[in-house]
Amino acid sequence: MPKQIINLRLNGKPTEVAVEPSWTLLETVREALGYTGAKEGCGTGDCGACSMIVDGRLITSCLMLAPQADGREVTSIEGLAANGTLNPVQQAFIDTGGVQCGFCTPGMVMAATALLKANPKPTFEDIRNGLAGNLCRCTGYTKIFQAVELAAERMATK
Amino acid sequence: MTQTEARPSTERDANGHKYVGKPAARMEGPAKVTGRTIYADDMKLPHMLHAKILGSPYAHARIKSINTQKARLLPGVEAVITAADLPKYKKNPTNRRSIVFPDTEALFAGQPIAAVLASDPHVAEAALALIELDLEALPNVIDPMEAMKDGSPLVHSSLSGIDRSEEQGHVAVDLESGNQEGKASNIASTTPFKRGDVEAGFAEADVIIERSWRSAMVHQSYIEPHSTIADYADGELSVWTSTQAPFYIREELATALDIPESKVRVTATEVGGGFGGKIYLSELMVSLLAMVVRRPVKYIMSRGEDMVAATPAPFAQVDLKTGMKKDGTITAIKSQLVYDSGAYPGASVAAGALLIGGLYRCANLDIVGYEVLTNKASVGALRAPSAHNATYAIECHIDMMAKELGLDPIEVRLKNAVVEGDPLPSGQAYPAIGLAECIRAMSESNLWKGRAASKQHKNRGVGVAVGGWMGGLQPASAIVTMNPDATFNVTVGCADITGVNTTFQSITAEVLNIPREQITVTYGDTKTAPYAGMSAGSKTTYTVGRAVKLAAEDARRQIFEVAATRLEATPDELEIEDEAVRVIGDAEKSIALTRIGRWTTNFGARYPVVVGRGSITATKMAPGFTCQAAEVEVDTDTGEITLLNYAIAQDCGFAINPLSVEGQMQGGVSQGLGIALWEEMQYNSEGQLLNANLLDYRLPTARDLPKIETIIVEVASEEGPFGARIVGEPSIVPGAAAVANAVADAIGVFINEVPITPERVLRALGKIGNGTN
Amino acid sequence: MRSFAYHAPKTLDEAIALLHELPEGARPVAGGTDIVVQMKEGRTKFPYPQLVVSLDRISALKGIEYSAADGLRIGSGATMSEVANHPAVREHYLALAEGAGVVGSLQTMNMGTIGGNVCNAAPSADTAPALLAFEATAVIVGRTAQRSLPLSNFFVGPGRTALKPGELLAELRLPAPPTGTTSAYQRHTPRKQMDIAVVGVGVALTIVGGKITRARVSLGAVAPTPIRAPKSEAALEGQSPNDATFAGAAEIAASEASPIADVRGSADFRRHLVKVMTARMLARAAERAKG
């Protein structure tokens, strides 16, 4: 199938890339553009490891066709630590031990970042709901819950 | 609720420790939270091909012919490879990993039969559909209880000389496993343990419980599927793979391919979760594919392939009869444990058989474990392999007997809990262990203390259970090198999954008394790193950590030898303080470490380079025990179970990094809870896995698990660094039993099959029939 | 995923024309949360598409509007999140918001559309029971004509709808519920999220002067399509909203279900859940009527 050109803003940068229509956004960002932070854990939208934010909404990039991202604003995990400074969610994941094997972490951090953007003072239930689409097999979530709480607290006092 | 947070440590604590015992943020944290960490699928090699694998559509089939012509002709396909195309290699019919593609007979649905290689993985995928298989379906056997019977179809011809090297990486136990001699059978091994006279024991008992307990086949479900890259050039094989066991793979590949171990470089890439399931699987296959095409080959399993054709954890049926006296004394334990090993041997039956009689003192045991073959994916380890199945049975029995006799579940456990010196069913004596300490700690937990309040609510219940794991033992080594600027590099050969590198950093910092930031830790590949056993069996900190401590002490000794000549003192009069070597009690007499760094490295240096070496062998077990409690609420109309609270107390010997110890405890708990409530590989009668995805194979989500109350217990081990003992595995073990006991406390019925699904709850309550339609 | 050609038309007419050119080979895709998974796994209920017609750029398919006179219009391209969080949906059609608010994960809800949920025609579709209870009409556009179909006639079988090749579901129209109407939807799943309904029950009750004047009971995942339970509804109408009434109606609803046994549950389990959950949803809706 011939490739087609799409234009998107990836992590704030205008980005042109030739894609096959059957590529997913995840494949495009990982393989064609070389940003390998987002992971494929299942390929069917069930694990959340590929989560990205597209036009302000958290999505699973393994289910978005590449051309569907044409003209959109895409943020991947590489777009969060502006100027090399970790965002509060990233820092809190490190401080509470919310990171183990790290494979779910990029997606989990994206989900937590999206959650706190929409809801800066989440209840425990809000946190659980906000992360329910992101499977973690290592931590049992306890330290991830604590990370989100800590990030919310730090963002509120800043 | 513990809320541990990493913080810089500077002050010495009551034990005189400055770095160990303090929560430390993981060294690789920043890379992991920014997505910069490189996993195998993130790697590309020049000229690399992608492999896609065609699996057997049948659970048992004779391979009559494979026509690859159409697939080869698809534009973009570089090669289509079947068993006939592979170079000669050493096969072992008892070891699935060494049967790359079966020549004549496929033994489980999804077993690899052929590979397509292409630069574009999509092309390779498309070509799979063009391979024409001529297979003859053979009679299969899927249910291990059926497979045990005389006259059952055979999974394959009877086996001898079973390769158990991988199993031994997880658990070090003296045991005698016998193969079934004589006629062909699906029983791959039998493990008996006997002590005393069980019939006499039952005669003494005031209550006897006899029941059968079933626990489902479950999957490790690391979020990163199996991922391997191999390249072969100039007689040397290089493999990058997501594994817990690089040196083990080196040995296996060298043997199978007849290449010297010195010419096999295995690099354990960052492991995106293993839990015992990432030891050795596709590495030989990918290596052979690379040898055929003389190009690097990458194989990333899809989630579906990983579910169908990796190495899940066995189904088990445990028939158990136990007796107890009114005073709570356990009088007899009689059990038959049947573990479904799938199409090849590998289920750790011995571990289950050992633990069912190894948690409590009991004079009379009659235990026999069977490892049974079926036409399903063969099993591997999952965090304390085979322990949860057996523990579920014995721990529910303890509650059932205690309930009959009106005894307190904590008290009855404390009364019988094994302590140092008590024998295992194998006869080995326990070293220092902390089972009783964990039970006592749990009795002080918020969850357990809130038990009475919980009972005020209808259909709520609290349950407790214990569990343990012996742990593995393997030699290990480490190197600590001093740099000219007085920073240090630690080099080890074990894959870091759980944060062990940060633990090694803390150990080195403690020994050298220098800030953690001045120490880096690297795990090398099998050519550059000092040998280590597999990161399995909970032993990495226990063994490699010990080697690191020795290596750091060796480096310190070398530093003191240099300093002693300049400070007019003997090495044992020296200490490191404020990044300088000084004479104890005389702060004026000191030399900055940086000067020693230069003196041992510069041109014309007068002293040899400081290279600390630590090399150990581990012979003493340091078993880890845990006591866990669950509070649940059961909806008796829908069968739904809500986990309200959960607590774990675990003996870790000494928590070098409490942050990662808690993480291991909580992670194991979540997997135990998955086993208890949700996870089940559902096969149909033809051996097809019906839920080979993460939607229908249900890992617990953030909405399903509460925050876990986490209590660290410390009963020092004899050999572990600073008293540390095994940590990773015990936490998974008692979850199924704790939840089952909590459910029974809530609704009065013990559910004898995990996962305890809503449907099983309703059946146990008699609200729906026995479920045939 | 195997390859295909791709177009993302901006208008409905263009989309229809594209679908019409390849009636068997073209496939509309909206959020992709069902169909992309099926295509990846090679288990589409239709021939693998040669052409994917993405609907995500067609503004005519977007939007949710409500008026007391005309009721609710939901563009088929409205996402689950948009439906679940829309104030008018929450106020007048709460069961629908509840159904849309449990589909998959947040990510799924941000991508998946109500049109996709309906056209995928899974018996377990979480928006379907509420849509049936609110008597939704499917507005279908084809090359030459537009037609409307009660949603109950839109579902034909598992994964099958009344859409003909070249037709698209443009919107769903839900009449304004009579005064005094409240509703509720719940599904049973083993996990609290990220799951497929084992059983879903949606109800809408109109209670006037202490009597049920209109009742709608709909069931998901217990028949080849999402269904209404008309006998159960008849047993409710004219009665007082109390536990005895609800228990009787729930018992009847269970008899109207014809569940199968599959990997998610046995038939008798499902039938039992219909009974339990129908009684609960009726009670919940009645409770909501009290405000």
Task: Describe the 3D structure.
The complex is a heterotrimer of chains A (158), B (773) and C (291). With 158 residues, chain A is of the alpha+beta class. Chain A contains 5 helices and 5 strands, in the order E-E-H-E-E-E-H-H-H-H. A 5-stranded mixed β-sheet of chain A has the order 2-1-5-3-4, with helices on both faces. In chain A, a hairpin with a 2-residue loop joins strand 1 (4-10) and strand 2. Chain B is of the alpha+beta class. Chain B is 26% helix and 24% strand. Chain B contains 21 helices and 27 strands. In chain B, helix 11 (387-405) packs parallel to helix 20 (735-747) and helix 16 packs parallel to helix 17 (540-567). Chain C is of the alpha+beta class and 291 residues long. Chain C contains 12 helices and 14 strands. Chain C has helices spanning 12-21, 35-40, 80-85, 87-92, 94-100, 106-111, 114-120, 128-133, 151-154, 230-236, 243-256, 267-289; strands at 5-7, 26-29, 51-54, 64-67, 71-75, 137-141, 146-150, 155-157, 160-161, 168-174, 181-188, 199-208, 211-220, 227-228. In chain C, a hairpin with a 6-residue loop joins strand 13 and strand 14 (227-228). In chain C, helix 11 (243-256) runs antiparallel to helix 12 (267-289).
The CA-CA distance between the termini of chain C, in Å, is: 50 Å
Q: What is the strand arrangement across the widest sheet of chain C?
A: 4-5-10-6-7
- Shape estimate of chain C: globular
Largest sheet of chain B: 7 strands, mixed
User: What class do helices, strands and sheet pairing of chain C give?
Assistant: alpha+beta
* Main sheet makeup of chain C: 5 strands, antiparallel
Side by side, the strands of the main sheet of chain B go 3-5-1-12-9-10-11
Tags for this entry?
heterotrimer; B: 773 residues; alpha+beta; seven-stranded mixed β-sheet; 21 helices; 27 strands; globular; C: 291 residues; five-stranded antiparallel β-sheet
Write the layout of secondary structure elements.
The complex is a heterotrimer of chains A (158), B (773) and C (291).
Chain A lengths: L3 E7 L2 E7 L5 H8 L18 E4 L2 E4 L12 E3 L12 H9 L8 H14 L5 H8 L10 H16 L1
Parallel strand pairs in A: 1-5
Antiparallel strand pairs in A: 1-2, 3-4, 3-5
Helix pairs in contact in A: 2-5, 3-4
Chain B lengths: L28 H5 L15 E7 L5 E7 L1 H5 L3 E6 L22 E2 L5 E7 L2 H8 L3 E6 L6 H4 L17 H4 L18 E9 L2 H7 L2 E9 L11 E7 L2 E6 L4 H12 L6 E5 L14 H11 L3 E4 L2 H7 L6 E9 L5 E13 L6 H8 L8 E9 L13 H19 L3 H8 L18 H9 L2 H4 L1 H5 L4 E10 L6 E7 L5 E5 L7 H13 L6 E5 L16 H28 L6 E4 L2 E4 L2 E7 H7 L11 E6 L7 E11 L6 E11 L6 H20 L30 E6 L21 H13 L5 E2 L3 H7 L9
Parallel strand pairs in B: 1-12, 8-27, 10-11, 14-15, 18-19, 25-26
Antiparallel strand pairs in B: 1-5, 2-4, 2-6, 3-5, 7-15, 8-13, 9-10, 9-12, 13-14, 16-24, 17-18, 17-23, 20-21, 21-22, 24-25
Chain C lengths: L4 E3 L4 H10 L4 E4 L5 H6 L10 E4 L9 E4 L3 E5 L4 H6 L1 H6 L1 H7 L5 H6 L2 H7 L7 H6 L3 E5 L4 E5 H4 E3 L2 E2 L6 E7 L6 E8 L10 E10 L2 E10 L6 E2 L1 H7 L6 H14 L10 H23 L2
Helix pairs in contact in C: 10-11, 11-12
